[in-house]
Amino acid sequence: MIPTDPGWQPTPEAAAAAVAYVASLFSGLGDAVEDVRPKFYDRVTLIDAGEYTTQITCPRCDGDIGLPWLGELVREVGQSFDHLDVTVPCCCAVVTLDSLRYEEPIGFARFEVSAMNPTRANYELDAEELARVADLLGHPVAQVLAHY
């Protein structure tokens, strides 16, 4: 889970409360999670979906941008950014990375709550659970599902 504002970070206490809550969601009979932890980043960082990221579309021209373009960008500047403005190859418009349309959501954030290898039947958090994480953090959140 990441804040909807890429630059926002919670207090350490709020992060700890959110982590405890998320871990509790996987503590039922047969449910487990390998690791739940908060991650604070100094700069806005790409929170990707791994193999779930298959297509990127431009919000200006609806052109297909393609994964190689994002891969080249990450190789060039790394996974952390001073700003999210980029020039897209399809129409040369300047847009923000978080405004691009990704087939499966990815995000950009200075904070995340990461749950590694959850095993409950519905490993995605539902709307009510996400709302509770947002309440604990003090900011709206989005969910990024990843498979590596």
Features:
148 residues; alpha+beta; 2 domains; two-stranded antiparallel ribbon; 3 helices; globular
Any overview of this molecule?
The chain has 148 residues and is α+β, with helices and mostly antiparallel strands. The chain folds into two domains: 1-50 and 105-148; 54-103, no CATH class. It is built from three helices and nine strands; from the N terminus they run βαββαβββββαβ. It has helices at 12-25, 67-77, 127-137, and strands at 2-3, 35-47, 56-57, 80-81, 85-87, 94-96, 101-102, 107-116, 141-142. It has a three-stranded antiparallel β-sheet. Strands 1-9 form a two-stranded antiparallel ribbon. Strands 3-7 form a two-stranded antiparallel ribbon. β5 (85-87) and β6 (94-96) form a beta hairpin. α1 (12-25) packs antiparallel against α3 (127-137). The longest helix has 14 residues, at 12-25. The chain is globular, with a radius of gyration of 16 Å. The model has no long low-confidence stretch (mean pLDDT 90).
Strand order of the largest sheet: 4-2-8
Morphology call: globular
Number of domains: 2
Q: Helix and strand string, N-terminal first?
A: EHEEHEEEEEHE
What share of the residues lie within helices?
Answer: 10-25%
Mean pLDDT: 90
Structural class by secondary-structure content: alpha+beta
List how many beta strands DSSP finds: 9
The whole-angstrom Rg is 16 Å
Uncertain regions: pLDDT < 50 for 5+ in a row? none
Give the percentage of residues in beta strands.
Answer: 25-35%
Biggest sheet features: 3 strands, antiparallel
Count of DSSP H/I helices? 3
Q: State the end-to-end CA separation.
A: 17 Å
